UniProtKB/TrEMBL annotation:
GO cellular component, one term: membrane
InterPro entries: KR_dom, NAD(P)-bd_dom_sf, Sc_DH/Rdtase_CS, SDR_fam
Protein name: Short-chain dehydrogenase
Entry-linked SMART domains: PKS_KR
Family according to the record: Belongs to the short-chain dehydrogenases/reductases (SDR) family.
Lineage, uppermost ranks: Bacteria, Pseudomonadati, Acidobacteriota, Terriglobia, Terriglobales
Amino acid sequence: MIAKVLTLGTKATWWAAKRTARGYRTETSIALGLLGAAITANEAYKAKQRATAMCGKIVVVMGGSRGLGLEIARQFGLGGGHLVLVSRNEEELRNALGKLQAEGAIPNGAAAHIVVADVSRQEDCERAIASAMERFGRVDVLINCAAVMQVAPFEDMTTEAFHKAMDINFFGALYAIQAVVPHMLQRGSGNIVNIASVGGKIAVPHMLPYVASKFALVGFSEGLHAELRHKGIRVTTVCPGLMRTGAESGVKFAGNAEKEYAWFKFGAEAPLVSISARAAARKIFAATVAGKAEITITPQAWLGARAVGLAPNFSQQFAAAVNHLGLPAANGNRDTTTGAEIEAKQ
């Protein structure tokens, strides 16, 4: 009798446990479903916010006539921003504006403005910001994207190459920021986006003027973020890795120019390690909307920058090996030629 009762009790316990487990699984499934729906709804809400975050904003793009600058302008235009494109070449500016209008990147009701200016000249940068202020009454977003690059061994670089890189890549950004920050502080809001480079994190051989200027820009941009963050101004430092922008045609090469161009072009066009300018611009747009302090674009660039920080001695030894075994030796030629000129000869 006792055994029978124990058997019945065991069966009842098992049945109750099974029923509870089924109920638990059902409740868990419902909870997980609700959680998934909430996450999906939240992401949809965030996506809607991102899509409209720049609507009506006044966006100044320094160096916005071609390459990455033009792609960034396209993303902000599609986001509803009123664009101010700044470059020293008026024809390129007008062509860029025409492309954006033809592609619908400047929607109906949105306005666009172009300013011819040399960013290496402080008075030109001040005039560009003043022109945007006169046209629209304010500047909400400043994007510093103008840059120059020269590729050659250090022995084949001139002092002028370093001056030019600093004047455009670093001081050009500084001049524009100095001109716009007082207005942003007065309003208590604004975004500043500095397009630096992974070359501002990793010292790449044969690109020392560019590297020096981008290291300067990264340090300045990070420090500026710390100073302006609690005054309502978001500063975003962007460090792209290799990008397929077609910019190699305008890059200047010295030393064994043809060989320098060959390795540079190979890296810039390699699909597995580089990113398209349009994809990079989308990431920059999203980082600006989110108010991120910094973004490194491409996994390879992110890993490379972290490797330098974690293992600086090994990283420098590796760079030295690449320079010795894989890059052209100096030959005393300091005369420069552009990638387009090299292509024309081939």
